[in-house]
Amino acid sequence: MSAEVIDGKAFADGLLRALEDDVRAFKKEHDLVPGLAVVVVGHDPASQIYVGSKARRTVEIGMRSYEHRLEEATSEADLLALIRRLNSAPEVHGILVQLPLPPHIDDAAVLDAIAPEKDVDGFHVINAGRLATGQSALVPCTPSGCLQLLKSIHGDLAGMRALVLGRSNIVGKPMAQLLLAESCTVTIAHSRTRDLPGECRRADILVAAVGRPRMVKGDWIKPGATVIDVGINRLPAVDGGKGKIVGDVDFEEALAVAGHITPVPGGVGPMTIACLLQNTLKAARVQIG
Ligand code: GUN
């Protein structure tokens, strides 16, 4: 048996085309262009690339992009002052502060300073609480993208056993909340879980988000299960080149066992930006009332 490989890039491209139509209709109806402000502090090369591609896609689907690239030495007070300005700027409907922030800045203080209705990352404690209590919320983009892929494969997820490997605030916890809201039976596993392979083998849906290259082996997977690989890990470089990017799942081994699997790259990654732009349009709709 060989798993069906889920084409996240094609799925995300379809979402972006639909979103472009929705943005056009929104502009016509409200005479207003949705705007997304992206803030990056410092010179982390990966962050610079992510922010550049977020801004490009924003413009491509007809929204306005406001980029704020700040020096590594920017103080927390100055960053908070910028966020306050963006919170009250009427042309800005979504605000994203790219992580990681430099070590002298308190992530939680910054994320919780963003107005919850403009928090398109869904990281604010108010949005996390709304998601946990089943209220309408801006939902973190990566888990939202994973859920859309899962629903495109299975339709109704009710009653399925789902295992989320990883307990981060950005992916693991919101992913578990979303699956619970779909009436899955959810297990959250992590570095201290006993018999991790055995726990994984019980899952109809396995979402891996631990940041450990190729950790999930073929014999950890239930035959026919759907495997969603959130990991983006760069292997050490060989021959002076750049190291290969791999997921948290051993793709070659998993391919022989799983029913469906996302590749890395080209699986979950492209979905994240599409979901960010979905959230920006949703935020603009909420803000105009
Ligand atoms: N850094 C890595 N992933 C993300 C994300 O989804 N949002 C933000 N703000 N920063 C990130």
Automatic annotation (TrEMBL):
Could you tell me the keywords of this UniProt record?
Amino-acid biosynthesis, Histidine biosynthesis, Hydrolase, Methionine biosynthesis, Multifunctional enzyme, NADP, One-carbon metabolism, Oxidoreductase, Purine biosynthesis
Q: Where is the Tetrahydrofolate dehydrogenase/cyclohydrolase catalytic domain?
A: 6-121
List, in alphabetical order, the GO biological process terms annotated in this UniProt record: L-histidine biosynthetic process; methionine biosynthetic process; purine nucleotide biosynthetic process; tetrahydrofolate interconversion
Domain Tetrahydrofolate dehydrogenase/cyclohydrolase NAD(P)-binding per the UniProt entry, residue ranges: 140-286
Q: What is its EC number?
A: 1.5.1.5, 3.5.4.9
Q: A single GO molecular function, which one?
A: methylenetetrahydrofolate dehydrogenase (NADP+) activity
Give the record's subunit note: Homodimer.
Q: What protein is this chain from?
A: Bifunctional protein FolD
